[in-house]
Every structure is written in C-alpha cells, then in structure tokens.
C-alpha cells in the first residue's frame, strides 16, 4: 500500500509501505542514495524499519506523517507509528527518569522500565572527578539521557551533554511524586507548545520532569496541589480537550 494513503489508518506488523522515489515518477522503491537532496530526506520513526521496497511496519498502531519543514517533497518529512506501547525500549539520545537500584564499583545500576537495567558512571555528571564524586544513593531518581542503547549492549546513561554541561540532568529532588503513564501520552506532553502543560501552568506553579520511558515527576507547593496535577495528567489520556478545560475551570474556580 502507498504510505500517503495509509496515514491516519491502522497498520499491522509485516505491512510494507511503498513510497515514490521521486515526486515526478510513480516508482515503488524508496531511493536511499547518499546523493539525495537533504530537503527530501525521509525520517523513519518508531514502529517502522527501512527495507528494499520502502518501509516495513514493526508495530501495530496508527500511521502518522509530518511534512518536511523545507518543502513539500513527496518522500520528505517523517513517518512513524503511533501505538499504545507499555514496555519502554531504550533509544540513544532519549531523556529518561531512572531509579538507582545498586552501586557496582564505579557504576550505578538504574531501573529505566526496560527489559534490563541501565548503567551510569559516577564520572557522567557535571564537574565529577575521582575525588569529587556525586552523592548518589540507592533509591534516588536520576534524569539523564542514553549514550548507548542497542539490542546487543547494556544501555548506558549519562547526565551531561556533548559539551560536559548538565543541561537540567542529574539527581531529582527527594520531594515530589513519581508516577507512570503510557508512552503515547508522554510524546504528546513533550510536543512543542503542548496545550495540557500550558493550561496546567495557569492553575498552580509546579516543577515537572518528563521521561521518554513513561515516567513523570511532579512537585507543587503542597501535597494536595501535587496530587491534583498528577490526577489531571493521568486523566488526560482519556479526556477530550473540552473535558479537560471544564475540569481545570472547576479547579480554578475553587
């Protein structure tokens, strides 16, 4: 089936999506040549894998497409499958919230919600040296990103960016509330100019950390305000935009 015709429809694992190699010719193969113009470059997102005929679907869900910012090239932009996945699979570069489960020599072991634990070096913090070690204890929450994540190796996390800065990563405060939501909701909340976050910010001041592994950490001024925000975020998955606005209007009225 042609990829453009399947956008917004349910696709199943094993389906092959055909894409024209050039806007002017009705070809069934996706040209992956190195000399292709960057503007027409196709990004292959979660749930899809490149194959000779085009894109192979690996997850069940709704096919989504976003046009390339540079132009309206038929093969450009990004395709991905929007699915309700519960088990998180580590991806290099993803920012996640991990829970420290053990100290093993110079490494910390973290539960990130995947099939195996991730490792984190004590040197992977801003300003950390052999003498100046970070004060990390078992049970602490760590916000970091994956440096290594593939099926053949143990996932490895760091709390610094490419220039050695923390950029907001590191140990998350002791207070606050940690809870889990679906990966689909996390992607929605992490979208630029997310309406849900903007509406909540008008309700109470609060701190929020979102992990791509479905974990959210929230801290407001009081425990009651924290729990209200937690309940709204959990309910957002099942509420329409109108229902959410009505619920927030009732809370702000109080």
Automatic annotation (TrEMBL):
MF (Gene Ontology): RNA binding
Subunit structure: Component of the RNA exosome core complex (Exo-9), composed of EXOSC1, EXOSC2, EXOSC3, EXOSC4, EXOSC5, EXOSC6, EXOSC7, EXOSC8 and EXOSC9; within the complex interacts with EXOSC5 and EXOSC9. The catalytically inactive RNA exosome core complex (Exo-9) associates with the catalytic subunit EXOSC10/RRP6. Exo-9 may associate with DIS3 to form the nucleolar exosome complex, or DIS3L to form the cytoplasmic exosome complex. Exo-9 is formed by a hexameric base ring consisting of the heterodimers EXOSC4-EXOSC9, EXOSC5-EXOSC8 and EXOSC6-EXOSC7, and a cap ring consisting of EXOSC1, EXOSC2 and EXOSC3.
The keyword Nuclease appears for this protein: no
Main location: cytoplasm
One of the GO biological process terms: DNA metabolic process
Highest taxon listed in the record's lineage: Eukaryota
Gene: Exosc3
Keyword set includes Iron-sulfur: no
Residue span, Exosome complex component RRP40 N-terminal domain: 9-84
One Pfam match: RRP40_S1
Family: Belongs to the RRP40 family.
Compartments, as annotated in UniProt: Cytoplasm; Nucleus, Nucleolus
InterPro entries associated with the record: Exosome_RNA_bind1/RRP40/RRP4, KH_dom_type_1, KH_dom_type_1_sf, NA-bd_OB-fold, RRP40_KH-I, RRP40_N, Rrp40_S1
Name listed for the protein in its UniProt record: Exosome complex component RRP40
